[in-house]
């Protein structure tokens, strides 16, 4: 268990943390969120004993981390730092093995080195075993981050402190890394992590702490902390918070205040991707229409749950002429038409309809999860040539820019 009591930390001449108190229970995964410079790294480095507070105490498992030896603290707390430059030609396996150092006997017993179980398990669980023999200088930034996580796992301390553990990871490894931490916590470890991606923090953490300007301004469940009122004040922006239709956890979108949300948007997108796109645009305050969408589709449910006017069709069948006309009129009336993983359409009518779109936005097939055959790829290539290409994460910003652009040109 971690207990931080009334901690104040000054760096340079400036107070960076002021009177911060918090606790993390055994078997709990707590995320620290907040804007750049809020003091997240400072807080984590005070918890792992690297920084000594000017006032207040930090105990981990009942041990005051600022009064004990570094070796004793290392047996209690393993850290994954934000950045680590490794100056020597160590192999990845060497680095992970360094996690065993706190268990080394002072007088040379090499047992900790020969006990490879922890090292091998750490390499396996972090998906780094494949490049264990390579020099640490010859792996990518994201791979290095996973190696540092492996070193922390090899350390086998009951508490994990992670500073931006997913910052340079691809989407797959972001999710794998945080679910690994969640698994370790389910196995009994305690974890505290600074996480910039609010959606990922909400998805994996049991509880969140919102740090702003050196103070904790909100704490509690992700649903409690990811509240626009708190977020807007902390991040000095306007945010829209919704529920991710796929994960069922809060999803935060930062808005660009300078762009008015005007003009209707039509979404042709099915499944999880279509649902995400609809949810984001709805969060962003757009007037939406959607379809055609097959009955039972997640995107259809998402649209209906948000009172979006939708064209529902029977799966796998060619569109009826009346449906085609309705689709054409939705596309004509929309300032922007977004195509994101469109449903199967044997007649090709959906793609035909998009040719008259005022502005076409295409969600990159890289983020499309349904299987693509050669014909799908060719169709996506044709769409990409005609439209503005984006991804699910940036779709709101892209559509905001596209609609704002239209306003400028219509005023001219
Ligand atoms: N070594 C230092 N000397 C003086 N000031 C520092 C030092 N390190 C950090 N600071 C300042 O302390 C404040 C908090 O920094 P910290 O790194 O803890 O923030 P953070 O929330 O982790 O930010 P980010 O999200 O950008 O990583 C910042 O204003 C920063 O400029």
Automatic annotation (TrEMBL):
Transport is among the record's keywords: yes
GO molecular function list: ABC-type vitamin B12 transporter activity; ATP binding
Alphabetic keyword roster: ATP-binding, Nucleotide-binding, Translocase, Transport
Domain ABC transporter: 2-238
Species this chain originates from: Halorientalis brevis
Protein name: Cobalamin import ATP-binding protein BtuD
EC number: 7.6.2.8
Subunit: The complex is composed of two ATP-binding proteins (BtuD), two transmembrane proteins (BtuC) and a solute-binding protein (BtuF).
Top-rank taxon: Archaea
Keyword Translocase: yes
Pfam families the UniProt entry points to: ABC_tran
Record field: catalytic activity: an R-cob(III)alamin(out) + ATP + H2O = an R-cob(III)alamin(in) + ADP + phosphate + H(+)
Stated role: Required for corrinoid utilization. Probably part of the ABC transporter complex BtuCDF involved in cobalamin (vitamin B12) import. Probably responsible for energy coupling to the transport system.
CDD domains noted in UniProt: ABC_Iron-Siderophores_B12_Hemin
Catalytic class of the enzyme: translocase
């Amino acid at each position: 268990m971690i207990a931080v009591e009334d901690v104040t930390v000054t760096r340079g001449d400036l107070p960076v943390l002021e009177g911060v108190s918090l606790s993390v229970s055994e078997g709990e995964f707590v995320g620290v969120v907040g804007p750049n410079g809020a003091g997240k790294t400072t807080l984590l480095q005070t918890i792992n004993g690297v920084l000594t507070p000017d006032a207040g105490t930090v105990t981990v498992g009942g041990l005051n981390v600022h009064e004990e030896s570094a070796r004793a603290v290392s047996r209690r707390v393993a850290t994954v730092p934000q950045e680590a430059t490794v100056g020597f030609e160590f192999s990845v396996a060497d680095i992970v093995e360094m996690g065993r150092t706190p268990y080394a006997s002072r007088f040379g017993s090499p047992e900790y080195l020969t006990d490879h179980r922890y090292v091998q398990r750490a390499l396996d669980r972090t998906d780094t075993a494949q490049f264990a023999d390579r020099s640490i200088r010859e792996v990518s930034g994201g791979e290095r981050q996973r190696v540092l996580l492996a070193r922390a796992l090899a350390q086998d301390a009951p508490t994990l402190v992670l500073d931006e553990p997913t910052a340079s990871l691809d989407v797959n490894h972001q999710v794998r890394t945080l679910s690994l931490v969640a698994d370790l916590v389910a196995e009994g470890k305690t974890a505290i992590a600074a996480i910039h991606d609010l959606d990922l923090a909400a998805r994996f953490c049991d509880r969140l702490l919102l740090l702003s300007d050196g103070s904790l301004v909100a704490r509690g469940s992700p649903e409690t902390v990811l509240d626009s009122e708190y977020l807007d004040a902390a991040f000095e922006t306007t945010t829209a918070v919704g529920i991710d239709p796929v994960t069922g956890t809060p999803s935060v979108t930062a808005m660009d205040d300078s762009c008015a949300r005007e003009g209707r948007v039509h979404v042709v997108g099915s499944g999880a991707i279509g649902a995400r796109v609809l949810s984001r645009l709805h969060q962003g305050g757009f007037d939406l229409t959607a379809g055609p969408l097959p009955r039972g589709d997640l995107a259809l449910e998402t649209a209906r749950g948000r009172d979006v006017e939708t064209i529902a069709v029977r799966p796998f069948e060619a569109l009826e002429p009346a449906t085609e006309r309705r689709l054409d009129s939705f596309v004509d009336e929309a300032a922007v038409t977004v195509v994101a993983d469109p449903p199967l359409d044997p007649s090709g009518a959906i793609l035909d309809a998009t040719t008259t779109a005022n502005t076409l936005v295409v969600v990159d097939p890289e983020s499309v999860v349904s299987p693509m055959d050669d014909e799908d790829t060719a169709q996506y290539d044709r769409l990409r040539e005609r439209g503005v290409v984006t991804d699910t994460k940036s779709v709101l910003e892209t559509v905001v820019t596209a609609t704002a652009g239209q306003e400028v040109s219509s005023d001219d």
